[in-house]
Design goal:
about 350 residues, alpha+beta, Thrombin, subunit H, Rossmann fold, six-stranded antiparallel β-barrel, 10 helices
Length: about 350
């Protein structure tokens, strides 16, 4: 969940954006980060109401460490237990934000098992993949990964090659011995990028090999592509390109006119959005850049002028439509809102 925040420390005010909000704390993007154990004041303004509480920096990520974990540099903070009325108001506002997030967050249509002994990376991947529409099961060793796969067959698996108890290569071998898991696509990640290691992984059945460090967006794109391909054999990529060559409004208009069904994936910087179509109408949209309902996501994504797109043909998951407006109406609404903002 991305949320504008102010961090006050040493008489300075730092404007930033939060991620991974919970009732206990949040992660805040900033560079350079503040030191661990620093005491700060956190300010949020939901609905225009300015709310303040005290927090302590629990961990700090610099540029190098953040790149390794596939996230932005910044700080994790833990909120102080409420001792003042202002703290109570802050906690209540966070509770409302989390409730709204849960109400607007679509049910996951894909399941992934993620295994890595590095718990901070595991937490980061779990949060990002959850926001990208996955139901995530995590494991810190190979035995836990096998158990998670056997308890409920996943659509895709992401494994670290070097894990305690049972490593990623042995997990691959074990999955191959179970008919219900043998066809599940597996992505292997490792800091070792030698040709021999990659070849061994592919020979054992891995569908993809991801060298560390990597960006979370890279993992999301690869995981969704493999998962959806395994979920529906009829799905295929029919169109891809750059938004600078063919703008999003033109793409959407074409889909409406041709009554397309499928899913459009759009990436920009470190953000990715997915737009589901049925017979030329948008039925659902979500994005890692904004935590909101489908209409608000569309209003945001229509501002994306640079990036890349990929259209996969086929029927999206059977879910209740979240939009009932035509694409033409959405484009006109977006144009009106932006005209009002400029005037």
């Amino acid at each position: 969940m991305n949320l504008p925040v102010e961090v006050m420390t040493g008489g300075k005010k730092i404007r930033a954006v939060s991620q991974d909000l919970s009732a206990l704390g949040m992660f805040i993007r900033m560079s350079p980060p503040l030191p661990k154990d620093a005491i700060v004041q956190i300010v949020i303004s939901p609905n225009g109401q300015r709310l303040v509480t005290t927090a302590q920096v629990s961990h700090s990520l610099d540029e190098v460490e953040a790149r390794t974990l596939g996230r932005f540099p910044g700080i994790g903070v833990v909120f102080r237990d409420p001792v003042r009325p202002a703290d109570e108001l802050f906690a209540e506002a966070v509770g409302r934000l989390l409730s709204n997030h849960a109400a607007n967050h679509p049910a996951a249509d894909l399941r992934i098992v993620v295994a890595d002994p590095e718990t901070r990376l595991l937490e980061r991947l779990s949060t990002a993949l959850d926001s990208a529409g996955f139901s995530v099961a995590t494991a810190t060793n190979g035995m836990e990964a096998i158990g998670a796969c056997l308890s409920r067959t996943p659509d895709v698996v992401l494994l670290e090659r070097d894990m305690p108890v049972v490593d990623g290569l042995h997990v691959l071998q074990e999955m191959g011995r179970h008919p219900e898991l043998a066809s599940v696509p597996v992505m292997l990640m490792s800091a070792d990028i030698s040709d021999l290691v990659r070849l061994q992984a592919l020979q054992l059945g891995a569908m993809d090999y991801i060298p560390k460090p990597f960006t979370v967006l890279e993992v999301i794109i690869r995981a969704r592509r493999l998962a959806r391909a395994s979920q529906r054999d009829t799905e295929r990529v029919v169109l891809r390109g750059a938004l600078s060559d063919l703008g999003l409004p033109s793409l959407l208009t074409m889909f409406e006119q041709e009554r397309k069904s499928g899913q459009l994936s759009v990436t920009r910087d470190q953000s990715v959005a997915w737009i589901d179509f049925v017979e030329g109408k948008i039925v659902r949209a979500r994005s890692t850049a904004i935590d909101a309902d489908s209409r608000a996501v569309m209003m945001d994504v229509l501002d994306w002028e640079a990036g890349y797109f990929e259209l996969s043909a086929g029927s999206p998951p059977a879910t209740k439509p979240e939009l009932d407006s035509s694409i033409t109406h959405l484009l006109l609404e977006h144009a009106r809102i932006r005209d009002e903002q400029r005037s």
